[in-house]
Amino acid sequence: RKIIFSAIQPTGVPHLGNYLGALREWKRLQNTSPPSTGLIFSVADLHAITVPRPPETVRQHNLEALAALRALGLNQDRSTVFLQSAVPCHAELQWILSCTASTGYLSRMTQWKHGLFSYPVLQAADILLYRATHVPVGSDQRQHLEFARECAINFNSTYQTDFMVKPEAITACPRRIMSLKAPTCKMSKSDPSDKSRILITDSPEIIEKRIHQATTDSIDGVSYDPDSRPGVSNLLDILAALDPKGRTPAALAEEMSGYGCRELKMVVTQVVTNEFADVRERFQYYMAHPKELADFAEQGRQKAMARAQPNMDKIRSIVGLV
Ligand code: TYM
After folding, report:
1. Ligand 1 mean position to 138 CA, how many Å?
2. Cα angle vertex 203, ends 201, 49, to 5°?
3. CA 293/CA 168 separation, integer angstroms
4. Which of 18, 51, 114, 178 to mutate to test the pocket of ligand 1 (most atoms within 8 A of CB)?
5. Whole-angstrom Cα distance, residue 45 to residue 40?
6. Ranges in the chain, pLDDT < 50
7. Hey, whose CA ends up nearest to atom 6 of ligand 1?
8. Theoretical Cys-Cys bridge with 16: which of 48, 92, 111, 198, CB 3.0 to 4.6 Å?
């Protein structure tokens, strides 16, 4: 049986990279999977407190994340959408997994170098708790997925069980979406410059401005070469990801070889604006109705608990805890 799990950190309204790397795929899976497929999507608020913020900000970001997922069309009829911190089993399993996690592997991971040992273990716990088979994420999360598989193997071999399922990544968008200002870095919520990203709730005017101001280069025409033309290639990656005909970035570049950067930017603006046409209004509606969001979150919590608790009981018994 297929069980899909994924999560997003609540650190502000999601951006185009989150959308193309993950959220759009969540929505697609929700709307196309057979009823037997489990669909579990979390707002990873425990992950988001590794950088301490004022409690009001944490609450606000959780609301924004829930409103964004609602605005994109995720629902509790088909999916389970919940706040990670509302299901205590995540933190409990994180501890249990950290006892069998390979420190050699962890020490080679980027986040460990930044001193966040427990971050990838918590992420592994999120996934393994639901015995997820598939995890739709952007390509920047591959290393974390690999680590989650490693955690499953270590747990299973320590306790001589096959309870933990090794999850597979689903990566819909092969390349990371890059910053509009510094196209050799990924588009990120933590970039101090608003100009580096497009939010899924940005107005058409802002979207136009951001794309218009995106860093490109002074080479004539349009061609696809991420190494030598990162800015132009990023725009082509965005265009290809949203292309109804599914053309590759290279094919699009071929067709637009006579265009200048300005024309390319106009086409990208059009396509991105279309994609997010009704998201802004829907988002504003939910932000103005926090009670609806609270009910939504509570519904998700109950559904997630019903899935998580029996698995957690089993894990405790495998480990020998009462
Ligand atoms: P987060 O919140 O950074 O990102 C959420 C999703 O967006 C994708 N993404 C991108 N994809 C393409 N281009 C980009 N520039 C880009 N930026 C972000 C990410 O790959 C991700 O799919 N640790 C995770 C959250 C998490 C999680 C989990 C994910 C917690 N537990 C369990 C999967 C399974 C994170 O910080 O994602």
Report:
1. 6
2. 30
3. 31
4. 18
5. 15
6. none
7. 18
8. 198
pLDDT score recorded for residue 111: 59
**Considering only CA atoms, which residue is closest to atom 19 of ligand 1?**
138
Predicted TM-score (pTM) of the model is: 0.96
Dig out the tokens for 10 from the structure: 């609540």
Instruction: Using DSSP, state whether 131 is helix, strand or coil.
Output: coil
Gap between the Cα atoms of 167 and 152, Å rounded: 9
Residues in Cβ contact with 71 at an 8 Å cutoff, skipping those fewer than 6 apart: 200, 201, 279, 280, 282, 283, 285, 286
Rounded Cα distance between 189 and 280, Å, is 18
Calculate the CA 91 to chain-centre distance: 20
Task: Quote ipTM for the complex.
Answer: 0.99
Distance of CA 225 to the CA centre of its chain: 26
DSSP letters for 59-116: HHHHHHHHHHHHHTT--TTTSEEEEGGGSTHHHHHHHHHHTT--HHHHHTSHHHHTT-
| pLDDT single digits (tens) 127-147 | 999 999 999 999 999 989 999
Using CB atoms within 10 A of its CB, is residue 62 exposed (0-12), middle (13-18) or buried (19+)?
Answer: buried
Question: How many DSSP H helices and E strands does the chain contain?
Answer: 15, 5
- Ligand 1 centroid distance, CA of 18 (Å): 7
pLDDT at residue 107, as a whole number? 72
Closest Cα to atom 25, ligand 1: which residue? 8
Give the pLDDT confidence score for residue 95 in this predicted structure.
Answer: 95
